[in-house]
Amino acid sequence: MNAGRAAAIILTKEVRAEFRARELLNTTLVFAFVVIVMFSFAFDPTASESRRFGPGLLWIALLFAGSLMLQPSFAREHANDTLDALCLAPVSPFSILLGKIAANFVFLTVCEVVLLPVFAVLYNVSLLPVLGRLVFVLMLGTFGLTITGTVFSAVAAQARMRELLLPLLLLPVLVPLLLAAVEATAGLLADTPELQRTWLEILVGFDVIFFTASWLLSDFLLEE
Amino acid sequence: MQNDWNGSMKQSLSAILVGALMAFAGYAALFIAPDEKTMHAIQRIFYFHAPAGMVALIAFTVVFIANIAYLINRQPRWDWLAVSGAEVGVAFNSVVLITGPIWAKPAWGIWWAWDARLTSTLVLWLLYISLLLLRTLMPDPNRRAVFSAIYGIFLFLDVPLVYFSIRIWRTQHPQPVILGGQNSGLDPTMRKVFWLCWLALMGIMIILMRQRYKLERARHELEELQLKAEEISADARDSAPRAIRA
Q1: Under 8 Å CB-to-CB from B152, ≥6 apart: which residues?
Q2: Is this prediction's pTM over 0.90?
Q3: Where are the alpha helices (DSSP H) in chain A?
């Protein structure tokens, strides 16, 4: 079986499991929504301030939500030792990882689709004129977040205190991604919207570097 | 026994040598290096601030190499080297983060600025603190070695991204004066004192890493002995009832 097909099967399995339980998506959505609302109480931004702080707020909410949502990705397999069974399947470890990354990417994208309009309404930001480019930035950022988050969730699943550990492992590594994503989004929401090349390059660089690294290291990550 | 004695002899000698080098470097930084035009005496902290940053980066590079080597050949000594490098690197990184604000207060008038170099040094520190934290939460030695090696490789790949992105984000720190291109430069005496201090700190790094490595090796041996002792006592428990029956 080739890697792509195996990954697609894992993806289907993850989506089906999530569709049956519907735990992860609901929790993450409510959490991200609460962050967005709390922010308004903490800073009480005026209209112009919310345009200035909006991009940062959006990405902080997504990163926090992601670091909570990705945690069960491998920890859930530990509950019934299903990871061993998964690793026994005659497919490459990378396709298992790829399937998981794809599934998490889908889950986070669903969250974003719901959150984005809410965010736009609550903070009076008009997203429609720049929607295409904004989606592009969101996809690049979400992809980087899911690659590192999925790999680190496999790492954290082996440790004690894993629920607390994933954000600690993940957030410092995401500093370049956060900077680039926030600046690119801020450029799009400015009075004269523009998509800055440098920040796009950093986002693409982040995605490419960590995607390659997880491809190279997947054998070690899932060997046990 | 002879070997042990030779080893500890060598160890004390190298410690004395590095101690003398460090004392001379301190003297040179305070008295030999010429006075700086605008900052005067306070600038002398530079001779330990900047080299400590370089030494920390070298230690983290050692961690990266040890991580890759461990994943390839699975010898525990690479894991010992990785943890030694990470701890010593964090120590030197802390020196940079402490001497930085001490210097910034008189020179810039503020303790901390979110400028490029300061911020990336802080993020670097956070990254490797997470690595050390991860290690403390994994009791099984083999898993700890494998998973912290994977995480360590990801961290090191993140370092250039952190530097680039933060550098574009903002810059207040002086442009690099060491290895910083044509128009940057130090007075020749300052340069010599700088590299002397760097050498002394490198010596300290090597000594610390060697001690930490030995400690990790001793811990590993202890763990193995404890496992063996448990096996023996388990065997004894299993065979005891039979002995009574006989």
Answers
A1: B63, B64, B67, B82, B86, B131
A2: no
A3: 3-21, 24-43, 47-69, 72-79, 82-88, 93-122, 131-156, 162-173, 175-189, 197-221
- B12-47 in b/e form (b: 16+ CB < 10 A) is eeeeeebeebbeebbebbeeebeeeeeeeeebbbbb
Separation of alpha carbons B5 and B84, rounded Å: 24
Give contacts of B145 with chain A, Cβ < 8 Å. Answer: none
Separation between Cα atoms, residue A1 and residue A74, nearest integer Å: 23
CA distance A180 to chain B (A): 7
Of B53, B120, B65, residue with least CA distance to B91: B53
- What value does the mean pLDDT take over residues A73-79? 79
**Residue A70 phi/psi, 5° resolution?**
-80, -15
Contacting residues for B6 by C-beta, under 8 A, at least 6 apart: none
Lowest mean pLDDT among A60-74, A93-107, B29-43, B44-58: B29-43
Sequence-ordered list of residues with C-beta below 8 angstroms from that of A186, at least 6 positions apart, any chain: A52, A55, A56
Cβ atoms of B75 and B8 closer than 8 Å: no
Q: Which of B137, B146, B166 sits opposite A220 (nearest CB)?
A: B146
**Whole-Å CA distances, A31 to A6, A64, A101, A148, B21:** 32, 9, 21, 21, 56
ipTM of the complex: 0.89
- Say which of A160, A180, A217 has its CB closest to residue B137: A160
Domain ranges across chain A: 3-223
Q: What are phi and psi of B128, to 5 degrees?
A: -80, -25
Q: Say if CB A43 and CB A121 are below 8 A apart.
A: no
CB atoms inside a 10 Å sphere around CB A204: 14
